[in-house]
Design a protein that fits this description.
The protein is mostly helical. About 70% of the residues lie in helices and about 0% in strands. It folds into two domains: about 1-30, no CATH class; about 35-165, Leucine-rich Repeat Variant, CATH 1.25.10.10. The radius of gyration is 23 Å and the shape is globular. The protein starts with 5 loop residues before the first helix and ends with a helix.
Length: about 170
C-alpha cells in the first residue's frame, strides 16, 4: 500500500513485532490523561474554597510527593478546614514525607476535635521521621493517647509514640 510506513506493510522483517508492542505499551502507560492537571493547578485548587477540589488536590499532590506544595498544604491545614479536607491534607503531608513546616502543622492538627484529623495527623507525623522534632512528635502522640476515649486513636498514638521515640 503506497504511503503506508514500511513497518506496517511488513517490509521491515528485522524489526520484531514484539518490540513495537512493547514500545506502544510503554507509551500508553506513561502518557498523561488528557484531563490531568499539573501540580501548579492542584496547588491553586487548595485555595479555591471548594472542598471537593481541595480534597482532590491534596490527594494528587500527596500521590506525587510534591514538595513544592508543602507551604500551601500547611496554610490550608492551619486555616482549620472541614475535617474531610483536613485529614486529606494531613495524609498528603505524610505522604510527601518532608520534615520542616509540615511537622509543626501536623503537631497542631493532632489537637483537632475531629478523630479522623487526629488519626491522620499522628500517622503523618510518624512518616516524617523528623529527628529535630522527635520529642515534640512523641509528646503530641502521647497527649492524644492520654486525652482520647477512642480505642483506635489510643492504639495508633501508642504505636506512633513508640516508633517516633526510636
Amino acid at each position: 500500500m503506497p504511503g503506508m510506513p514500511d513497518i506496517l506493510q511488513g517490509k521491515m522483517k528485522n524489526v520484531p513485532g514484539l518490540l513495537i508492542l512493547v514500545l506502544l505499551a510503554s507509551f500508553c502507560k506513561t502518557a498523561v490523561p488528557a484531563g490531568e492537571k499539573t501540580s501548579d493547578q492542584y496547588i491553586a485548587d487548595l485555595s479555591s474554597g471548594d472542598m471537593s477540589l481541595q480534597i482532590t488536590a491534596a490527594r494528587k499532590l500527596g500521590e506525587r510527593k510534591e514538595e513544592q506544595a508543602i507551604p500551601a498544604l500547611v496554610s490550608l491545614l492551619d486555616s482549620n478546614p472541614a475535617p474531610e479536607v483536613a485529614w486529606n491534607v494531613a495524609a498528603s503531608l505524610g505522604a510527601i514525607g518532608k520534615p520542616g513546616p509540615a511537622t509543626a502543622a501536623l503537631q497542631r492538627s493532632a489537637n483537632s476535635p475531629s478523630p479522623s484529623v487526629k488519626y491522620a495527623s499522628i500517622a503523618a507525623l510518624t512518616n516524617l521521621h523528623d529527628k529535630d522534632q522527635k520529642a515534640q512528635n512523641v509528646q503530641a502522640a502521647s497527649q492524644m493517647r492520654d486525652s482520647t476515649r477512642d480505642d483506635l486513636l489510643k492504639d495508633l498514638a501508642d504505636k506512633a509514640a513508640t516508633l517516633m521515640a526510636r
